[in-house]
Amino acid sequence: MRAFARPLFGRRARLRWIHLILGGALAMPYVLVGAVVVGPVAGSSDVFSSFPLQLSSFAVGLPLAAVTSLFPLTRPLESAAVRWLCGVPADRLADGPARGRAAKGRTALWFTLHLAFGGILAGMSLAVPPFAVVLLVMPLAGGVFHERLGFPEVFDQPWAMALAPLAGVASLLALACCAAAAGALLARWAPALLGPTPEDRLAAAEARAADLAVRNRLARELHDCVGHALSAVTLQAGAARRVLDADPGFVREALAAIEETTRRTVGELDAVLGLLRDGDAPGTAPAPTLATDLDGLLHRTRTAGMTVTAAVGAPLEALPPVLSREAYRIVQEGLSNALKHAGEGAGVSVRVALDDDGLDLTVENPLPPAPATRPGGGHGLPGIESRARVLGGTASAGPAGDTWRLHVRLPTRATP
């Protein structure tokens, strides 16, 4: 018995019934407009006193509903209602406005079906229950309903009076069956009519790709600025600890370098994290570039215990801002790798050269006796390759004799 009643009176069936009633409520304005058209044509001043005229008004109003469904908010609102009331999974429905002729046509068809089914079920929900109640109590009331409501004379027969309650129960079950069937049909058709179109899926994929690109860029920025700072600070602190008693002057210089490195990194970190805060402006600290901070970057690397030689054959101030910023991060990551793997006191050479077609960046350091590895590998070299690829350049890294060589070529003419 419960298995039979659940599809008709269970929670899902009741919610779908509510969805149909909402469709009937939405249909009422269109029926009223249809009545304004049908009344003069039929020569009637009271359209709602005639059932055929009511159906005619309903039929005239539905095309108007289809036209107004082109309003952009129709599909999002209908999708939300179907998701909450009809039990259709959210991933099978589109959230945004309909794009393209096909999507708008499907939305119009859905809206028309919702109002059509809803209008019919709403009318039945208003008419059937009172009628059923009358049939249920008819044997108790005797001839009162026959006299006041004008029931057919057949209800004067004893057998008709006996069957009236059964007819009342049957009419209520028929109403429940119609509502359940209509709700199930709409729930079945909803994904096809309100689901995402290929254009919607493409737009969603583009949005995800753009979001992923922003996240990857932020991840590279955080990796480069924080990773370099931590590597430098670790070596500076270790060197200061070893000569704490023997060379106080070096210790003071190392602590000053640690202070400068951390202060600058906090400013860069604030600038990057500012991009993640909704409604917040980016941090006030400007992104470092070759023109503004190459000397500072080399100085901080030297204070970490590395011997750095630099050959700069390019007017850094003339470089485009985007190129200068990305080139700075590439050199910074190259020096970070040297700090991590070459060991304290190793010599590192940095060369920056500019010609008519592009900018060449080279960082070389001695190969360590036993190269350090991390589980899963690091993200520095992939980040460098990604930066170079975005700018239309190339990057290569690997052993060259007894040195490790990083070389990046960035075109200047293709820089955004």
Automatic annotation (TrEMBL):
Which keywords are on file for this protein?
Answer: ATP-binding, Kinase, Membrane, Nucleotide-binding, Phosphoprotein, Transferase, Transmembrane, Transmembrane helix, Two-component regulatory system
List, alphabetically, the GO terms of the cellular component aspect. membrane
**What chemistry does it catalyse, as a reaction equation?**
ATP + protein L-histidine = ADP + protein N-phospho-L-histidine
Q: Which InterPro entries match?
A: HATPase_C_sf, Sensor_HK_TwoCompSys, Sig_transdc_His_kin_sub3_dim/P
Q: Which Pfam families match?
A: HisKA_3 (PF07730)
Under Gene3D superfamilies, the record lists:
1.20.5.1930, Histidine kinase-like ATPase, C-terminal domain
Q: What EC number is given for this enzyme?
A: 2.7.13.3
Organism's domain of life?
Bacteria
Q: Which positions, given as ranges, span the membrane?
A: 20-43, 55-73, 109-142, 162-187
Q: What's one GO MF term for it?
A: protein dimerization activity
Q: Which residues are in the Signal transduction histidine kinase subgroup 3 dimerisation and phosphoacceptor domain?
A: 215-279
Instruction: Establish whether keyword Transmembrane helix is in the entry.
Output: yes
Q: Which PANTHER family match?
A: NITRATE/NITRITE SENSOR PROTEIN NARX-RELATED, NITRATE_NITRITE SENSOR PROTEIN NARQ
Its name, as the record gives it, is histidine kinase
